């Protein structure tokens, strides 16, 4: 059975890696090789100069776009972990009269299509003068009803014994959260952090509308400039895609163990 599992996992890994192979293979080839009627596993000659062309292209500020995406993704991830974590803990552990009403309102926001709130959000951001500004890209994504709900469900199952011990030592809700709950929930925080980072990094429509100035483009907006109704720069598009997913791969590899632990995390350290 172990051999069968290894074979199955190897096949699954190969299927998972096929898109990465295609993106890298096409990014290091010429357009003629990409569109050729016969397929070759690897380009006859690897064109490393494609990287220089990509990063020196004056029409697409690739480095600036990567930095903008990184800043937006990091800030939104940190904001969601901070704000949604506090909100979820409050809904799970702090009793007050309208806690259920607040919870239902948070859940109700998950039923509202994003298209409904898109225009009102843009009007608010535009009124504040945040168009082509990192504030307009970051602030609307600092809070998530879905992340709040996940935190609330997690904290409901957090061992009360640990919190009661903290209260005996004189800690209130604030101190218990930061000194007991958070240190014993790193796996769950990391798991949601990975999801929030990937989601923020892959956003396209909102940055496309808000980042009207080239200096405020995110990497997804930069990628879209290689594909227009007039022309398609196939080689640059594939290579830019390969470069753009590098931070996601690094984050995933660094925190992949937390993705599994976050599902079964109980809050008790061994």
What ranges have pLDDT less than 50 throughout 5 or more consecutive residues?
266-270
Shape: globular
Give the CA-CA distance, first to last residue: 30 Å
Largest sheet: none
Q: Give the fraction of residues assigned to helices.
A: 55-70%
Number of helices in the DSSP assignment: 15
Provide the gyration radius in Å. Answer: 23 Å
Can you walk me through this structure?
The structure is a single chain. This protein has 270 residues and is mainly α. Helix content is 69%, strand content 0%. The protein contains 15 helices and no strands. The chain has helices spanning 2-27, 31-34, 49-55, 62-93, 99-109, 114-127, 134-138, 145-156, 160-168, 173-181, 186-201, 205-210, 219-224, 234-244, 246-264. Helix 9 crosses helix 10 (173-181). The longest helix has 32 residues, at 62-93. It is globular and about 70 Å long. Residues 266-270 have low confidence and may be disordered.
Compose a concise summary of this entry.
The protein is mainly α. It has helices at 2-27, 31-34, 49-55, 62-93, 99-109, 114-127, 134-138, 145-156, 160-168, 173-181, 186-201, 205-210, 219-224, 234-244, 246-264. Helix 1 (2-27) crosses helix 14 (234-244) and helix 3 (49-55) packs across helix 14 (234-244).
List the helices and strands and how they pair.
Layout: H1 2-27, H2 31-34, H3 49-55, H4 62-93, H5 99-109, H6 114-127, H7 134-138, H8 145-156, H9 160-168, H10 173-181, H11 186-201, H12 205-210, H13 219-224, H14 234-244, H15 246-264
Helix pairs in contact: 1-14, 3-14, 4-8, 4-11, 5-8, 9-10, 11-15
């Amino acid at each position: 059975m172990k051999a069968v599992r290894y074979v199955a996992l190897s096949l699954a890994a190969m299927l998972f890696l096929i898109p990465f192979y295609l993106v890298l293979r096409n990014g290091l080839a010429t357009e003629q090789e990409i569109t050729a009627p016969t397929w070759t596993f690897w380009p006859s000659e690897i064109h490393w100069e494609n990287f220089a062309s990509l990063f020196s292209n004056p029409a697409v500020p690739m480095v600036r776009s990567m930095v903008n995406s990184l800043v937006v993704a990091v800030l939104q991830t940190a904001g969601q972990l901070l704000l949604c974590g506090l909100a979820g803990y409050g809904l799970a552990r702090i009793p007050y009269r309208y806690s259920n009403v607040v919870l239902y309102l948070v859940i109700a926001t998950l039923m509202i299509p994003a298209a409904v709130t898109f225009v009102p959000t843009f009007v608010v951001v535009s009124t504040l003068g945040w168009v082509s500004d990192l504030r307009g890209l970051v602030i609307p994504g600092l809070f998530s009803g879905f992340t709040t709900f996940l935190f609330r469900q997690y904290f409901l199952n957090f061992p009360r014994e640990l919190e009661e011990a903290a209260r005996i030592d004189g800690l209130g809700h604030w101190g218990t959260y930061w000194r007991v709950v958070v240190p014993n929930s790193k796996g769950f925080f990391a798991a949601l952090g990975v999801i929030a980072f990937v989601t923020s990094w892959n956003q396209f429509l909102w940055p496309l509308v808000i980042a009207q100035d080239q200096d405020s483009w995110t990497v997804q907006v930069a990628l879209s400039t290689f594909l227009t109704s007039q022309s398609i720069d196939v080689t640059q598009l594939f290579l830019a895609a390969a470069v753009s997913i590098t931070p996601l791969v690094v984050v995933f590899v660094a925190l992949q163990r937390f993705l599994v632990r976050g599902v079964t995390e109980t809050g008790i350290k061994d």
